[in-house]
Design goal:
homodimer, about 475 residues, alpha/beta, Aspartate Aminotransferase, domain 1, 3 domains, about 45% helix
Chain lengths: ~475, ~475
């Protein structure tokens, strides 16, 4: 007889009832081929003694197994493993999926694997300090207000179960957004022009999927936002890059490409180009609109950083100008509040938004409507605007503090231009950044080694998420590595 | 001189400062071509009188415009619209995006448009009652506990700004999941085998994208889960359907297809097939594992409904059997808690999960890690298990109550089989469902007209989200429509 005592290990501290544990164990061993078809099982009394449980427990386990068709219980003959089950050997997940699937993505994703080694997103490791890519300081965000609204909405739902699902996102949020965008950015968009997404990244994916067919020519600045380019390549785009100077992406270079090739889409970050933080000049904004009309290509305007400007106010988006629907505008609240609040949005023509809705449904059905409704309240109450005003003051101070530190502590090794806004400084190091990054890691400070920015010895120094004291510590660690 | 009084309308109740409103208005009119290049603007004093604001406000607005390069201010000569800006006409988003983009998706999405007319997701309309596709009752879920954990984590983050980002999802959640899946479902998966997604739908999209290349043969039951099939078709799959009977999908039909065609992937919902609610029998589960090994195809096991069983315990997933990594297991917490908690997961081989991580990054970067950490606490504390135990009792009662109502009030017009679990009854009507649905809508009750299920006069009656009184009202409305 098989050693059931060791085969069936019971743990009474588990959530799972003991009789279920017994049933599962037996099922498991049947599948593993340890218990062959037609094998006799000990009677309930005997098994109860073996496993040191009450007989009723075994009875429950056996009847469970019988109901599920794993064993046959015959009066006065005992229990047997069912005979109509094929024999099987044990199996688990290995390191590699068989049959090639899971491999077919390798080609496009090798790129990512490489980039990932120097991801702009620091890993979950024992870092005491993290110099990030330019993330907001969650400690400043009115998340308590957001959660208060969220909870009160939950309470309401308790009373009222009726909830509709709209893939485009919460109606109240889209209504609030329409006013907000028109008041703050001169964007005239109605509810039918708005799609709420799970973060700006999803908006980029959707807008790209709707404007790119495999082989299509797509223009973006170089260096540029790696994760966006990865999406475009993933969708089969033929990437054509143009230089980026202190005025933003080079529109003459864009014109040159348009004269030679049909262009489907251009991706631009008008405020604080990633990674170099430059702002697109008004003249170039208009030039882009002209070119998009002349050569009929779509512009994806990724304006995630609109809310953060220190020396002057932001320029109105291309989306507020004359675009005849050629501009697809993308924004996010992850920067305004916290990266954990994954609410982004996409503005476009009605039929475009319709398509986007269907695509979003395929990606993730819908967002968290309660959280979206809560955000709508904060927008209407002006909490968001007040927070942005406050955050801009704090971040401006932190930027000035960072530049002071760079000029005093790292003058010999770092070159940079003070950005007019955003949450990061584009720092070019005169020493090997990989070594400096390794040195910092030893001391519990994360700083990118530059790999992910595809630029030699350069990386972004996010100044928003660290207070002056934390930044002081961070720079001190870097200075000690020179 | 232009009528600036009407051209520049100010609203002091807006969040936007008045000087910004003036600057934006002037910028807008320059772009619109209303203010041509080199046009003279009124002096600050004159403009202040025209708009009835303090002169300092105009000074601020003008210097703003000058900084942004829209106007030139020359001492003793006044202000002029900059001359180096091309002329432009006004433009906005229309109904249709120009240049064909936003159209290219039409073909695949026409299908969706049709299906959408009878979406399984009720619209945000003035319905008093909604018979849904089978959603949980948010009022029963321990969302208050979840929010409490979430807030305490937020407070912690206030003190501690260091956050890493892992696309695979919160580490603590994946650790908790690994134990949870092994204790409750016999699934032996480690953290490297787990990917957290934004709802189960994203897990389906990712798993499909990694197992499907355009033209690949994919097997699914008919009728089946429409949104999944839409994903597969969207990714270029050649759909091959097999019948579904009371034992689940017909594995002999699967074998027939495999003998004739190479198959890349099979999609199966083992517990409570959507829409017909049948459960896949143990013998067929093993047959599927055999076939997948023999013909080397991937199985996407969508077990979203595992937690809800009334007459007996659920069967262990295929993923707990001998699959050698060929099974990709998908689950969700949206059903266990609330559809607003969009946390799903995917279990697979390590390299597969790696690929999935990169793809998820492209789709939405990452989830809400704070919420994921909060969920992890609920899983570890057993809150989830306790809730499921409680919810199962309640839902079982509601199911019995619904069947009683159907048997008494709608006996002549409805046929159905009592499901062993899940949250919906598959109801086949002997009268035109479209008319009944229209009648119900007039009385504030939503019920699908069946279109989305692609079955004549049949729809799912979700019984979990409505308490007995609400269900009574709903059925009464339906009965009045016969």
């Amino acid at each position: 007889m098989l050693p059931f005592q060791t085969l069936i290990s019971l743990d009474k501290t588990l959530a799972l009832p003991v009789y279920r544990q017994i049933a599962n164990a037996i099922t498991h061993h049947i599948k593993n081929g340890v218990l062959q078809p037609c094998t006799a099982l000990p009677g309930t009394r005997e098994m109860a003694e073996i496993l040191d449980v009450h007989r009723k427990t075994i009875v429950a386990a056996y009847s469970e197994l019988e109901v599920q068709g794993w064993i046959c219980v015959t009066p006065r003959k005992g229990c047997y493993v069912a005979g109509n089950l094929p024999e099987l050997k044990p199996g688990e997940w290995g390191q590699e999926a068989p049959g090639g699937y899971g491999k077919q993505m390798s080609a496009p994703f090798n790129v990512l694997t490489k980039e990932r080694q120097g991801s702009i997103y620091p890993p979950n490791t024992p870092f005491h300090l993290i110099i990030d890519d330019g993330w907001p300081d969650t400690r400043l965000a009115p998340l308590d207000v957001l959660m208060r609204e969220y909870r009160s909405l939950l309470k309401f739902k308790y009373k009222n179960p009726v909830t509709g699902t709209v893939t485009a996102g919460s109606l109240t949020l889209r209504e609030a957004m329409a006013d907000y965008l028109s008041e703050t950015r001169g964007i005239k968009a109605g509810v039918p022009h708005l799609l709420i997404t799970h973060g700006a990244q999803m908006a980029i994916f959707i807008a790209a999927r709707l404007t790119i067919t495999p082989g299509a020519n797509v223009i973006a600045g170089a260096p540029g936002y790696a994760t966006a380019s990865q999406v475009f390549r993933h969708l089969g785009a033929n990437m054509m890059t143009v230089p980026v100077d202190e005025q933003g992406i080079d529109t003459d270079a864009v014109a040159d490409i348009c004269r030679k090739h049909p262009v489907s889409m251009l991706y631009v970050i008008p405020h604080h180009h990633h990674p170099t933080t430059v702002t697109l000049s008004p003249a170039r904004r208009m030039r882009l609109l002209e070119l998009s009309a002349q050569y009929n290509f779509a512009i994806i305007e990724d304006d995630y950083d609109y809310g953060f400007h220190y020396n002057s106010s932001p320029y109105l988006p291309l989306a507020s100008g004359q675009h005849d629907g050629r501009v697809i505008y993308i924004g996010s609240f992850s920067k305004s509040l916290a990266s954990s609040v994954r609410i982004g949005f996409l503005v476009g023509a009605e039929d475009f938004i319709q398509q986007g809705m269907y695509l979003r449904k395929l990606l993730d059905l819908k967002g968290n409507h309660l959280m979206e409704d809560a955000l709508a309240v904060l927008i209407k109450n002006g909490d968001i605007s007040r927070h942005l005003k406050k955050a801009n003051k704090v971040y401006h101070t932190r930027l000035q503090h960072l530049t002071t530190l760079l000029d005093t502590r790292l003058r010999e090794v770092v070159e940079y231009t003070v950005p007019t806004g955003g949450m990061a400084v584009w720092a070019q190091f005169k020493i090997p950044l990989k070594q400096l990054s390794a040195h910092a890691t030893k001391q519990g400070l994360y700083i990118s080694d530059g790999t992910s920015y595809m630029a030699e010895n350069s990386c972004r120094i996010g100044f928003a998420s660290l207070n002056t004291q934390e930044m002081e510590q961070a720079i001190t660690i870097l200075a000690s590595g020179i």
